[in-house]
């Protein structure tokens, strides 16, 4: 990173990862042609694309993959190859594996889902259990409730599933299976997780019923879907990913003289916990040009302001689950203490993020304590250079890249946090380092 004084200008952050996956899934299962504008060309989304191609779906892309055309074959149009089980590689993508499990549970063929070393260690019982209750057969090859998974599709029946975790991946797997199930399928979660699947179900013509989350009620949430004969293809615009914008929101807040506009960023209220928390920490930003196309999005302009510590807990956690690593970096440079509780889900992401954060923060001299379900960070302490262990986790890598940039402005240009695997940013944000370089003035 060249030396600089502030972050200025504007940026179109890459497309939303969760929405890009769903655009491919719904486009493939719909009848007709779905056009996706501003698709995320990252490793995770390419895993989903490769799987649907392997299942016989024609998917055309322009040169940089940002415009995608999916020729859907209907809910019953997926094809297995001649050999069964059909082998499907999900790479590093939990969303691919869990959402596809829901679809494959209903197919008249068997499939074998596997991932990279990280994905093959992540818990899959959370989808195996409800999908088995619906009538499919799902086995973990190593008998450890992890992938590889062998899925034998079957005729499904609707269930009422009380999920122990607020997880959009679990909710989506069950609702996708619910399209094929007899009667109604309902998922109840402890508090609301991202609702992109519910929005897609509605837009593509399924009969869905969701609890109204506009009420100021953070209690349990439900979504249900009725058996469906066909979905109809749609135009989809994928807004910028707030999870990717988050790195720049934090950097610009903490670097003197910064002023940055991030264009067309998704602000879905089930994803925008980071805006609430940054506001509580004292961040200065505006939300302008709000638009809606399946999902709400807006231009975010952030200017530098001192941040103070805060508490993140309870039903707020699912609303900012992927932003907790970069919020820890915000806490690192904020005045006072930040406490994170109720976030044990971070232990089963692309890495054990609580451990990865605590280990790396300790290595750079931060005052940090790890608890079973969170972290406590004392902000604004002197820090020093150290090598960062990313564990191949894109969000750990990008968070510490931002910590380095902020640290240089506080401790001098020699402050450096080299990443052991910078390449892992390709999972969600292939152009991350180029964009960061571009904005630094
Ligand atoms: C995602 C849901 C979240 C999130 C992940 C993407 C999705 O996981 O962490 O990066 O697209 O549904 P959980 O649903 O397991 O919390």
Total count of strands: 21
**Name of the CATH class of the largest domain:** Alpha Beta
Q: What is the CATH third-level topology name of the largest domain?
A: UDP-n-acetylglucosamine1-carboxyvinyl-transferase, Chain
Q: Indicate how many domains the architecture comprises.
A: 2
Report the portion of residues in β strands: 15-25%
Bound molecules: shikimate-3-phosphate
Count helical runs: 12
Radius of gyration, Cα only, in angstroms?
Answer: 21 Å
Task: Summarize the structure in words.
The chain has 441 residues and is an alpha/beta fold. The chain folds into 2 domains: 8-14 and 239-439, UDP-n-acetylglucosamine1-carboxyvinyl-transferase, Chain (Alpha-beta prism), CATH 3.65.10.10; 17-235, UDP-n-acetylglucosamine1-carboxyvinyl-transferase, Chain (Alpha-beta prism), CATH 3.65.10.10. Helices cover 30% and strands 24% of the residues. The protein contains 12 helices and 21 strands. It has helices at 17-29, 43-54, 94-104, 125-133, 168-178, 196-203, 242-254, 273-281, 324-332, 353-363, 394-411, 432-439; strands spanning 8-12, 30-37, 58-61, 67-73, 86-89, 110-114, 137-140, 149-152, 160-162, 184-189, 208-210, 221-226, 231-232, 235-237, 259-266, 284-293, 295-303, 311-312, 337-340, 367-371, 374-378. The strands form 5 sheets. Strands 2, 3, 4, 13 and 14 form a 5-stranded mixed sheet that branches. A 4-stranded mixed sheet has the order 1-15-17-16. Helix 4 packs parallel to helix 5, helix 7 (242-254) packs parallel to helix 9 (324-332) and helix 7 (242-254) runs parallel beside helix 11. The mean pLDDT is 96. The chain binds shikimate-3-phosphate. The site of shikimate-3-phosphate has 11 residues, from helix 5. Shikimate-3-phosphate (S3P) binds at residues 18, 95, 167-169, 172, 193-194, 321-322, 345.
């Amino acid at each position: 990173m060249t030396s600089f004084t502030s972050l200025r200008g504007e940026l179109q952050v890459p497309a939303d990862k969760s929405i890009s996956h769903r655009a491919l899934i719904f486009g493939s299962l719909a009848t007709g042609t779905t056009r996706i504008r501003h698709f995320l060309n990252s490793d995770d989304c390419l895993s989903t694309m490769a799987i649907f191609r392997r299942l016989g779906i024609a998917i055309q892309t322009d040169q940089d993959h940002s415009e995608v055309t999916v020729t859907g074959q209907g809910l019953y149009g997926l094809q297995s190859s001649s050999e069964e089980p059909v082998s499907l590689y999900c790479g590093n993508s939990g969303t691919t594996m869990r959402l596809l499990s829901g679809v494959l549970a209903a197919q008249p063929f068997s499939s074998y889902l596997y991932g990279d070393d990280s994905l093959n260690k992540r818990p899959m019982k959370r989808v195996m259990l409800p999908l088995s209750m619906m009538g499919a057969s799902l086995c973990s090859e190593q008998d450890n409730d992890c992938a590889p998974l062998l899925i034998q599709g079957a005729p499904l029946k609707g269930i009422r599933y009380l999920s122990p975790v607020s997880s959009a991946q679990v909710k989506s797997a069950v609702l996708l299976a619910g399209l094929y199930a007899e009667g109604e399928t309902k998922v109840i979660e402890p508090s609301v997780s991202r609702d992109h699947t519910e929005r897609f179900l509605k837009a593509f013509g399924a009969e869905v019923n969701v609890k109204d989350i506009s009420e100021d009620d953070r209690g349990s949430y439900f979504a249900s879907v009725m058996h469906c004969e066909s979905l109809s293809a749609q135009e989809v615009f994928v807004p910028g990913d707030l999870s990717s914008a988050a790195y720049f929101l934090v950097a610009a807040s903490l670097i003197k003289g910064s002023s940055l506009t991030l264009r067309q960023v998704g602000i879905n209220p089930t994803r925008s916990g980071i805006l609430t928390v940054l506001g509580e920490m004292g961040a200065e930003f505006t939300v302008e040009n709000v638009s809606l196309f399946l999902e709400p999005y807006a231009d975010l302009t952030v200017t530098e302001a001192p941040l103070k510590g805060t508490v993140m807990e309870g039903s707020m956690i699912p609303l900012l689950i992927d932003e907790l690593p970069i919020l820890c970096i915000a806490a690192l440079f904020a005045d006072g203490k930040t406490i994170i509780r109720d976030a044990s889900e971070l232990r089963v992401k692309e890495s054990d993020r609580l451990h990865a954060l605590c280990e790396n923060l300790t290595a750079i001299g931060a005052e940090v304590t790890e608890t079973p379900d969170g972290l406590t960070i004392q902000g604004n302490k002197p820090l020093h250079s150290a090598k960062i262990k990313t564990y191949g986790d894109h969000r750990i890598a990008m968070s510490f890249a931002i910590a380095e940039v902020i640290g240089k402005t506080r401790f001098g240009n020699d402050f450096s946090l080299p990443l052991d695997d910078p390449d892992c940013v390709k999972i969600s944000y292939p152009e991350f380092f180029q964009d960061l370089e571009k904005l630094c003035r």
